[in-house]
Amino acid sequence: MTEPKTKESAPLQPQPEGKGASGRAIVIVPHLRRPSKDGPLDAARSPEAQLDEAVGLALAIDLDVVSSGLVPLSEIRPATFIGTGKVEELAGIVRSEEAELVVVDTALSPVQQRNLERAWNCKVLDRTGLILEIFGRRARTKEGTLQVELAHLNWQKSRLVRSWTHLERQRGGFGFLGGPGETQIEADRRVIGERIHKIERELEQVRRTRGLHRASRKRVPYPIVALVGYTNAGKSTLFNRLTRAKVLAADMLFATLDPTLRSIELPHGTKIILSDTVGFISDLPTTLIAAFRATLEEVLEADVILHVRDVSHGDTEAQAADVKAILTELGVDLMSRRLIEVWNKVDALEKGGAERLREIVSRRPAESRPVLVSALTGEGIEALLDEIETRVSAGRAELEVALDAADGEGLHWLYEHTEVLDRADQEDGSLRLRVRVPPDRADGIRRRFSA
Ligand SMILES: Nc1nc2c(ncn2[C@@H]2O[C@H](COP(=O)(O)OP(=O)(O)OP(=O)(O)O)[C@@H](O)[C@H]2O)c(=O)[nH]1
């Protein structure tokens, strides 16, 4: 593990005046000096990078981050997670900074959270709580919203302490939580239980309809190209660059919790559907995996997957490893021709960096060569479009079909289910069409419309 930025005795780094409107917050990343093999802290990622990410997440929910820093630990304390001395030191900082909230970027037990709240006399949000807030703000589809609310309720149920009502009121969420007395907690637990039941029923309903939507989407004749990648890798910016669509692309994490679809035409006329997906994040709390996966199922149906990477980020390798691990778990073959690595933000590399990457890329075999782009400046975009077109066509079969001109139904079917490349009306009253189809459809179509 790299040397921590903050020494044990040093105060946290003051932050420049933040733009946040949700309250004054301190962000800390506790990390073990010697990571234990079963410790909850992620040793693959540098603590500094984790701190950057945590501050980014806090800013994404409009917190005014007044101070932030690493908290090195020699061991994890059951009662407060971090040691007594450090807890006291932080209490002083909370007071002097008039902070209303401390984000502790690790998974805290309900008891640890409660004890820290008492010691600091302010709200404490752990990593799960922080990501839940972000998911809550970014969820756009019905299913996304329900999944997040369900995860939130399950998490709350395990820790019936007053939640951070300020944020939750804003979202119109769980304002009923808060009573400190036993009876109040029991009542809250019952209300939560009922709400969980209701949401589970609604989710069932939504899933059934989503299945229908997907079935109708599957009939769409165009190949689907899905963008995946780590949070802040530049997916939305690339999506916009490729589609010139107006999709939210702010310097915010998780600007896209739910998939967005657009259809575009590639340089040689191939039409595709471009699908933007949720950003990946390190150490995703297990309670959130279902909500996250629901949005990623799109990827499985994609003909081509663009794995967008921010190659100017210090942790780009660790981020890519995270994404690949999840793709593999979902059943995507990483060696498959349908995966293209897009190395984004080449404009942000330090001097000589882009040349170095170009050399690395040129040594890779052509079929697994990443494409270097800048979604911001447009550099490399033409080459990317060409590569997408090559891969899309490679995965599709081209057929010649013939049918009677009077077969209106057949013609209609072909236009709905295949990509019609060319059409010729014959003198004998028949029609000849050149169509492109997914390989698994080719045989059926040949049988029905023998050329
Ligand atoms: N310098 C540079 N910045 C970029 C580039 N592409 C995107 N960005 C910036 O990176 C930030 C994140 O971009 P987004 O497109 O929102 O990232 P995302 O992957 O969609 O993020 P999530 O929605 O959180 O998953 C924004 O500030 C973009 O302006 C690029 O090629 N070069």
TrEMBL record:
Where mainly found? cytoplasm
Q: Does the keyword Nucleotide-binding apply?
A: yes
Entry keyword annotation includes Cytoplasm: yes
Read off the PROSITE patterns from this record.
G_HFLX
Q: Where are the transmembrane segments?
A: none
The record, for InterPro entries, names: G_HFLX_dom, GTP-bd, GTP-bd_M, GTPase_HflX, GTPase_HflX_N, GTPase_HflX_N_sf, HflX_C, P-loop_NTPase
Record localization: Cytoplasm
- Fetch the PANTHER family from UniProt: GTP-BINDING PROTEIN 6-RELATED, GTP-BINDING PROTEIN HFLX
Record's subunit section: Monomer. Associates with the 50S ribosomal subunit.
The family this protein is said to belong to: Belongs to the TRAFAC class OBG-HflX-like GTPase superfamily. HflX GTPase family.
Give a short account of what the protein does.
GTPase that associates with the 50S ribosomal subunit and may have a role during protein synthesis or ribosome biogenesis.
UniProt protein name: GTPase HflX
Gene it is expressed from: hflX
